[in-house]
Design goal:
By secondary structure, the protein is an all-alpha fold. It has one domain (2-186). The protein has helices at 2-12, 18-21, 31-47, 51-62, 70-86, 92-100, 108-122, 125-129, 143-159, 166-186. The radius of gyration is 17 Å and the shape is globular.
Length: 188
């Protein structure tokens, strides 16, 4: 966790990351929260153009296995999606890992519900329920909104069954990345 402590200390003293990292104390949290922090640290490192550090966080996250806890899996899935994005959507093993969670439950009804929810996500259903995470006038970034939105764009691009083209998804992702880069640069 030294990597996380080092990185979070750096982010703690830098805008626009400060708000996200100021409440985290790795000595006082459980496993699920550590996974959450690792995922956010990976995305923030990615947005800060520190892909090497982001990949180190992702290495830790992607080693985690699905154990039936979907709350915990949320953070691992977010890391896996960023890893898929960094590898230009060519890592089919990670994609298969995400899909394999659908058949984890013993109850057939639960598996059907999981598959239906997954299919809705592949069609962009969740994305339609969320608003774009910021406007062009914004001078700050709410990473608690931006990262889930960005992650959902990666998810849709990975499993796309929606009316949204990969080009449209890439454009939205580029807009987010450009805006965050602009905001980060304004604090340097």
């Amino acid at each position: 966790m030294d990597l996380f402590n080092e990185t979070s200390l750096d982010f703690l003293h830098r805008m626009p990351f400060r708000e996200l990292f100021k409440k985290w104390d790795s000595a006082k949290i459980g496993t699920d929260e550590k996974l959450e922090m690792l995922m956010y640290a990976a995305y923030c490192s990615y947005f800060d153009k520190k892909d090497t550090i982001a990949k180190k966080f992702l290495t830790i996250l992607t080693k985690e296995e699905f154990e039936g806890d979907y709350d915990k899996w949320t953070w691992i899935e977010g890391g896996i999606l960023l890893q898929i994005h960094l590898e230009n959507y060519s890592n089919h093993q990670l994609k298969d890992r995400l899909e394999s969670t659908l058949d984890y439950a013993e109850d057939e009804t639960v598996r059907k519900i999981n598959r239906k929810a997954f299919q809705r996500r592949t069609k962009g259903f969740l994305l339609n329920k969320r608003e774009f995470p910021f406007s062009t006038e914004d001078k700050t970034v709410d990473f608690l909104k931006v990262i889930p939105y960005f992650s959902e764009l990666i998810f849709i691009r990975t499993f796309n069954e929606s009316d949204i083209t990969n080009e449209q998804l890439s454009l939205k992702m580029s807009l987010i990345e450009d805006k965050i880069t602009q905001i980060i640069s304004s604090y340097k």
